[in-house]
Amino acid sequence: MIHEFIMHVICPFLGTMGYAVLFHVPKRFYLSCGFTGMTGWLVYNTIVGRTFSAAFASFLGTMAVVFLSRVLSVRKKCPLTIFLVSGILPLVPGAGIYYTVYYLVTNQLAEASRRGMESVKVAFAIVLGIVFVLAVPGTVFQSLAVGQRRSRKG
């Protein structure tokens, strides 16, 4: 149980940091990128096993990633995409897309259709999560970052 939880924390953290290295993110942002991806995966992983679907869990995980990315971009004074692109990658339905193509090639059309629709739902949930949090005015995140800086100074 503890071993599984540690793997669900370390693997997305290191994977997201790996993508940050691949995308040539400045080194000072590596830990923040890893933390963003880990947070999104933890939100997704704790919800997906419950009574909710993978699409809803992806939606909530994406909202967590975008929210954290916006806060970090204001605090660290850098573009949002630095954290968003690498942080969202653990939630992308890569295995679902792979199995969709696999079942198409092996002529198992019913299973390919089921997997494909599930992957489309997850991808659409990711888009909706990004849109919902990006629709929140930037002043909210600026006030969050300023409030955190003031509490640190005081």
From TrEMBL:
The chain crosses the membrane at residues 6-22, 53-73, 80-102, 122-146. GO terms for biological process: succinate transport. The keyword Nucleus does not apply. The keyword Glycosyltransferase does not apply. GO terms for cellular component: plasma membrane. It is found in: Cell membrane. It holds the Pfam family ThrE_2. It is a multi-pass membrane protein. It comes from the Bacteria. Keywords: Cell inner membrane, Cell membrane, Membrane, Transmembrane, Transmembrane helix. Residues 9-134 form the Threonine/Serine exporter ThrE domain. Belongs to the ThrE exporter (TC 2.A.79) family. PANTHER family: SUCCINATE TRANSPORTER SUBUNIT YJJB-RELATED, UPF0442 PROTEIN YJJB-RELATED. This is Threonine/serine exporter family protein. It comes from Sporofaciens musculi.
